[in-house]
Predict the 3D structure of the following.
Amino acid sequence: MDSLLGFPQSPATVILRRPLISTSRPNSNRNAGLSFRAKPNDASDPLLHDAVNSASLRFRETHRPEPLFVDPYAGCFVDPNAQMDMKQCSHHYCIATKYIDDKLLRTVNHIEGLKQVVLLTDGMDTRPYRLSWPTSTIIFDISPDRVFSGAAEKLKGVGAKIPRSCLFLHVPLESSDLQQTLRAKGFNGNRPSIWAMQGLPVMTLANFEDILLTVSGLSMNGCGFLGELPAWLAETEIVTKTSTREWMEKLFMNNGFRVDMICYEEVAKSLGKKLAAGPYKNILFSSEQLRFSDDQMETWRMEFQRVEEQGDEEGFEEL
């Protein structure tokens, strides 16, 4: 299978993976270390607060004279009297949103047989509704259940609908085993997929490693994983851009991914936009799976066992 994200295609060499049964840890009642007790309507809910902030950025971008993208549904999440952003510079988040949108659509439209899209989000991601997905695309959204449920009601209220002949399935981030839940909802590790992460709550480095482990176990060789991850994950270990890149490469390669850090400034320039000044809390990345998925390995194991048993039977008959 061709590389899904434009990486030079290397020979399909098996990179052995560590045994994987579940992404949850012993004596744990959570997935990826996330445990919040705030109520959906609680103003202090950090997950709801962050999701609304991101929706506000999309809402403002949509109403700029020359928007990077149009999100017709972001407005249902924010204050209708929100101040419009008429500045010429583009926010890092909006640059990343456009980059991820384009990569997703380019990939699903040009890779034969790719029908599985997994979005790791804050619960208010409107991509399933606002992007033009090909026929028969199955979209999985992994996000905090309480945020997603409230957002789904608001989207329903404004008439948002999934493209015809596509399927949209929610997977609660709080699931004790994300791999098992995805499989139960129909995800197939023997088929191509594309994974994108933006806004997913990550509390610790161990949380993100659990996410990488999940994606690695379910992604076929050559499949892509892109998006944004919190920059603070690396802040305690590195201080320069070079070491940030080295840290990223090691982290991803430990889970079978070849990764590239994407420069926000370069993306903005390619879009004819000027990036807003000031620091930003995330790292934009694009990666390719070099390993085979757990399902692929199991399929080949069963096939090898079948061939071996068939050979034994033929040998017995000859005797």
User: Anything to note?
Assistant: The domain at 97-299 is CATH 3.40.50.150 (Rossmann fold). The chain is about 40% helix and 15% strand. The CA atoms of residues 141 and 170 lie 5 Å apart. The first strand starts at residue 89 and ends at 90.
